[in-house]
Amino acid sequence: MRGFLASSIGVTCAAALALPLTLPTSGARAATSGAQQPPAGPAAEAVPGTTQSLPLGPLTHRRSAGPAEAGEQGLSRRDVHPYSLVGVVWDDPDDELHGTVQVRTRPVGGSAWSGWQDVETHNHEHAADPDAAERAAGRVRGSTAPLWVGHSDGVEIRVRPEPADADRATAAYLPEGLRLELVDPGDETPPEGSAQGAKPQGATTLGTAIQGTLPLNALSEASQAVGLSVEAAAASSVNSQLVPLGATVIPELTKQQTEAALTAQADEPEAGKAKPYIGPRPRIVTRKGWGADEKLREKNFAYTKTVKAAFLHHTATGNNYSCRQAPSVLRSIYRYHVKSSGWRDLGYNFAIDKCGNIYEGRAGGVAKAVLGAHTLGFNTDTTGIAVIGSYSTANPPKAAVSAISRLAAWKLGLHGRDPSGTTTLKSGGGNLYKKGANVRLRVISGHRDGFATACPGSRLYKKLGTTRSASARLQGR
């Protein structure tokens, strides 16, 4: 057996396949979707990045202003500390913002202000299910989608309620406690090994741990996390580059290597039996790779039993970012979800940028059934994949669509799902399906299939057929 471990890629691939997003602390307990979660402590700001929260107030209006304009709230132009992403939050997560949110910004070092930019107001459908511990914790707030505006130090905002119309006798009321959130993600450094970055250098592996870079207890913790004994880890050191510990990138595997990894894990409780159809594992930029501050999120992880379906999203943050900036955008969304919206972690399980780089999202393990907060009513037994950008009127890049297919083929294959098929999910409650309803949905669905929303944008939604067929082919179907 030791000879097999030392001479084959089977177990090392298996270990890389099972590598969690972050290693749990020694006292961490895996939480189930129904378990109570401890309240999060004060978030440390050790990693660069800040959040400014500015209360909104009534705006001064011209005498001829209509009822909607008269009910506006916002802030006049002002200087602020540098930031790159904006959003609006309010006190009650059950309240909806019926109206428009627009911002003007001024870049750092510049004097010209942008025109008015729209912020997507319908964001409550990206959230934990009503009965989830995350929602019941009492920290969650209502929020718009975040908007990436680039490095700025000036801002102006107006929030205008919907006017009276045939369906509404009077102008809508705005939610209470409106606040402008300005997020600074910190340094804009591309992840090592990304499509736009350099080849990763100095990544810590099980091999370097064995050679003494890390103490033996660190190797023990790492090997337990990936399902290996210390002896087995040492025996597999010949291929330890396939098992990154705290690395910035989880490397891709061929289809043969991926299948071999599953076969090697057949006796592992978490892996289950080897699946007959699975796509090759794509390269995934880890949370460390995009600079996630692990002190922001809750310590524990939350899991469901399996992954029956993947829901496709767009982040609605706009397309005015470079792939070099994608980690910064992701750090901003993460901070906005946790610090501003009150979620336990980033809502999405995975994110993809316009260049096709794939990023791990919510912590708990890329191969595991991590409970997300992406599709209200259908977070249980699903995974959420978000393309960074807005795709209601813009076409998604081919690289991003290809990355969706590759990620779905692997992730769904781990759990024995056919990307071109259908499955049954139980609704946790929403505006399309009542709580407890058994709903037949496509294994790869758009957010709008489970909730009445524009997400993932009509242009991206039209690519679902292509994604399903491509994912099925990658699985060998």
From TrEMBL:
Gene3D superfamilies: Peptidoglycan recognition protein-like. Belongs to the N-acetylmuramoyl-L-alanine amidase 2 family. Residues 296-457 form the N-acetylmuramoyl-L-alanine amidase domain. Residues 282-430 form the Peptidoglycan recognition protein family domain. Residues 1-30 form the signal peptide. This is N-acetylmuramoyl-L-alanine amidase. It comes from the Bacteria. InterPro entries: Amidase/PGRP_sf, Amidase_domain, PGRP, PGRP_domain_met/bac. Coiled coil: none annotated. Residues 28-51 have a biased composition (Low complexity). Residues 28-78, 183-203 are annotated as: Disordered. SMART domains: Ami_2, PGRP. It comes from Streptomyces alfalfae. Pfam families: Amidase_2. Keywords: Signal.
